[in-house]
Amino acid sequence: xxxxxxxxxxxxxxxxxxxxxxxxxxxxxxxxxxxxxxxxxxxxxxxxxxxxxxxxxxxxxxxxxxxxxxxxxxxxxxxxxxxxxxxxxxxxxxxxxxxxxxxxxxxxxxxxxxxxxxxxxxxxxxxxxxxxxxxxxxxxxxxxxxxxxxxxxxxxxxxxxxxxxxxxxxxxxxxxxxxxxxxxxxxxxxxxxxxxxxxxxxxxxxxxxxxxxxxxxxxxxxxxxxxxxxxxxxxxxxxxxxxxxxxxxxxxxxxxxxxxxxxxxxxxxxxxxxxxxxxxxxxxxxxxxxxxxxxxxxxxxxxxxxxxxxxxxxxxxxxxxxxxxxxxxxxxxxxxxxxxxxxxxxxxxxxxxxxxxxxxxxxxxxxxxxxxxxxxxxxxxxxxxxxxxxxxxxxxxxxxxxxxxxxxxxxxxxxxxxxxxxxxxxxxxxxxxxxxxxxxxxxxxxxxxxxxxxxxxxxxxxxxxxxxxxxxxxxxxxxxxxxxxxxxxxxxxxxxxxxxxxxxxxxxxxxxxxxxxxxx
Length: 520
Description:
The protein has three domains: about 1-50 and about 160-235 and about 345-390, FAD/NAD(P)-binding domain; about 90-155 and about 240-340, D-Amino Acid Oxidase, subunit A, domain 2 (D-Amino Acid Oxidase, Chain A, domain 2), CATH 3.30.9.10; about 410-515, Alpha-glycerophosphate oxidase, cap domain (Helicase, Ruva Protein, domain 3, Orthogonal Bundle). It is built from 17 helices and 18 strands. It has helices spanning about 1-5, 20-30, 60-65, 70-85, 105-120, 130-135, 160-170, 220-230, 300-310, 365-380, 415-425, 440-450, 455-460, 465-470, 470-490, 490-505, 510-520, and strands at about 10-15, 35-40, 55, 90-100, 125-130, 150-155, 175-180, 180-190, 190-200, 205-215, 235-250, 255-260, 270-275, 275-280, 285, 325-330, 345-350, 355-360.
């Protein structure tokens, strides 16, 4: 990829940002026949795109807010994503427990509308359950005063794995994608952008990209790139931090998730089974600057534990937290008094230089956001007209999955090739850690086929080890470093530096880190 970037003199389309939106644009652009290149200053999906609640959803809360258009669009995209990436997106049932006599009937009415809006792309009908039926599905719900529930359906996925598969899909369509390459300067001819200067963080090699169209899809760093283009550009983002806790599966056995319809701050809270753990979240805290590794506050951890504890028969404690992680939402500025009320609609701007910036939105609507960005580029005569075909384009690895509990199901059509690696070298079938579901072959595969460059790449996004059990991920780091170093021919000093860096990073995912900070 890097050799191609250095050799090719001109690109039709240059995308800055390798998260969900940027990768979606790369797929769409390459599929339409444009010469497409994407640069990402960190790793693909290093930011917000790997830190979601892992839901592909229309947005029950947005329906409550009356944003019908956003919900309709998201429900359609949910259906398309499940069709195009069936190895990663599954039908997830949710229970909304009712502790007052009127609650189940009230929520059922709204969710029937939600079902109707999904149309033929729906995942299942909402139904009311009795108290006994509810406890049969979710035996760990708090039984006191429970009257019943309503069950509805939405989608669930693995966000970083989808991002990697999107990158592979874009490459298969002909795009050139580079992680660890940072946009540093726009070079203009007159007032129009003509060239992007890029710094290769791994090779310390600067290079130029000449393109006819530049799209800024950097999420929480949208304003940074806008101001790189024009230092007088006014900010368009209001940033919000969302935190999640990961606990053992025993707190929510079975396959049904819980939606808490209203927390103490007026938001919804989810507890969702995911890779044999449970993710609980999220918060909504306004912050004033973007960070690639955001960290939660003590108040957020306490908030999540306190609110979910009201709905479970066994309250999770700090000692039960396997991992804690935060992501930042790039919300478009508005007049709302708090970030929870700001729209998740996406926003597109065309600067005087021609730079197209797209931000906001959410994972579920990444494909539509990409289509809209390219529609604007065509309208601006930066690209020649070509039709969008991504609504019927399968994502790399796509195949029907019979059992979403089977090991490695999320690799889809790549799984047989990994089994072939293990057959050739049986040692690769061993797990990288007894408390993690990942094998050595997955690390080797990530290095050979998925542009995995660091231990963080391997344990945070190619596998999800740091989210499932941060302490176990630290213990696995030396082995993972040696596997990557063996593939690339790196020296022992590289391994030691990588382990040290990852150990420091993973400390931020362990709740003891925050307890110590408070005590200090």
